[in-house]
Amino acid sequence: MPETVAGPDLQPRLQAWRGRADAALERALFSLRHGEPRLLAAMRYAVLPGGKRIRPLLVYASGHAFGAADDVLDAPAAAVELIHAYSLVHDDLPAMDDDALRRGRPTLHVAFDEATAILAGDALQALAFSVLAESPVDNGRRVAMLRELAGAAGADGMCGGQARDLAATGKKRGQSHFLDREPEATRHLPPKNDSDPFSSFPPADLERLHAMKTGALLRAAVRLGAIAAGADASARMHLDRYAAALGLGFQIRDDLLDIEGDSATLGKTAGKDAAQAKATFPAVLGVEASRRRLAELDDEMTGALDALGAGSFAPLRHLGRQAIERSH
Amino acid sequence: MPETVAGPDLQPRLQAWRGRADAALERALFSLRHGEPRLLAAMRYAVLPGGKRIRPLLVYASGHAFGAADDVLDAPAAAVELIHAYSLVHDDLPAMDDDALRRGRPTLHVAFDEATAILAGDALQALAFSVLAESPVDNGRRVAMLRELAGAAGADGMCGGQARDLAATGKKRGQSHFLDREPEATRHLPPKNDSDPFSSFPPADLERLHAMKTGALLRAAVRLGAIAAGADASARMHLDRYAAALGLGFQIRDDLLDIEGDSATLGKTAGKDAAQAKATFPAVLGVEASRRRLAELDDEMTGALDALGAGSFAPLRHLGRQAIERSH
């Protein structure tokens, strides 16, 4: 993480928030008393030990900026990570992205089985809403957070974005996914030539797709913190601009890493997008234009946070910068 | 439906409630503005036209008994049916029950594809919570309903019961479901002999399994109506007894129908439980003992509703009787 952005006191705070999020996730999973042991083990496998916890960190950073105490933010931080964890489990399934490696470990359906992976994902989604319903805030804020998260997770958000992504790939529907998978690409750069299937894919459509697929949940994380803190509508408008830029930047960086990175650093299979003929920003815009778009989004985030005036925005600034500069 | 239970004015009321539930489901689906068209079509396919709508009817009947107006009950009625619909879509998947026929039509993954079926189920679950968050009741009741439904849907409820069911069947995990499937049974009666894998399966475990798998959501339907109506804790306790008996009776009847029924009447594949070596009540208790248990549960429902005193309980009585006497 760039020390130019993160002051000397920021890293310990982020680490403490990560610890709080992990503890809140543990509590949520331990609150389940009657689940089948294999299902509970699968749910734990999906959630602990975690990844970067970027979404919980955004909840804490956003809530903190508007004066919320950390213990008010634990529930929304855990809830948004439960939705994220379930989405990874389902995205990795053979009928979806068919991935065997995630965070450096076998994916859930490989470590357990497909039926358990489907059920664990379903139960993680339900658990997210259970956790949010117990937030130590008044019922008005609880309902506002539940509405926000359900909207971000559903057909108008994450699920809708994933469906658009599937529709945009070269994957032929209704056929076995094993039959139409292209052979593993030996180099990771997507083709940029006349036969490129994405040469006419409108960049605006791709941004829309990812505003839903990854952006909706990242935006929800920022908004949940602000709702828990009782931030006013004007503040939330600027936060939305910040969060939209962060979500898009996060995805463009992800696409670039798939080309530039290696599987060991990423903890997941590199070069997979090109192998699956995915519609990515490098494939649609080209690599250089994708990097320029990242710089624009960095300015957009800075402008949105500046418009919020004086406040404790250093954590949000840092997380935004990290999203577009990260190496994994 | 037995006319001895349903008075002459009851059928039109049930029909009107079914119409309200369908309209509320339509509104919920039409509220989605940005979803991918194929995903939205799949969600509609899963929800409309519907089945018996037993869960929405329980919401209306329960809320009505405690004085709620119908328009207060539309949101919980739709929400519980959205959870039910998503669970059917995921249960039918090849990795789960692998069923091709549902309500007399191809199952969703057959009519569309597996990826769309997974995503449509996920989005239907999220939509259930979105709908509930918009209920025209105060925020306290909204949160209570959201808590109830999320708990019933998750690992301590429906998902946990489904996981227990998978664990209890003869299905071997981690292997292709095509390899270990027994040949289609030519008769539907489960084996009752020395090699019966369920001869030592404790009936209490089976009741527990189904109290979670089907019972939790049926109980939630009854409780959502009572919460929306503001019923007091004592009333809810008796309602819980009624709902637990109804849920168990519903499942025992389902198991018996799988043996006695034919696919055309059922609208789904008959004899499937025996073919898949499922742990069912006829397999564990025997057919006659299962029928005796149904009679006990009928008495239990009657006792619970009688304990509620004078009130408009005819619809709940009728729905309980129907659950254990239905022919499909």
Briefly, what is this?
Chains A, B: This is Polyprenyl synthetase family protein. The structure is a homodimer of 328-residue chains. Chain A is mainly α and 328 residues long.
What topology emerges from the helices and strands here?
The structure is a homodimer of 328-residue chains.
Chain A: H1 10-30, H2 37-47, H3 54-65, H4 70-91, E1 101-102, E2 105-106, H5 108-111, H6 114-133, H7 139-153, H8 158-168, H9 203-229, H10 233-260, H11 263-266, H12 272-275, H13 281-285, H14 287-307, H15 314-325
Helix pairs in contact in A: 1-4, 2-6, 3-4, 3-9, 3-15, 4-6, 4-9, 7-9, 8-9, 9-10, 10-14, 10-15, 14-15
Descriptors for this entry?
Farnesyl Diphosphate Synthase, 1% strand, 66% helix, homodimer, 328 residues, mainly alpha, 2 strands, two-stranded antiparallel sheet, disordered N terminus
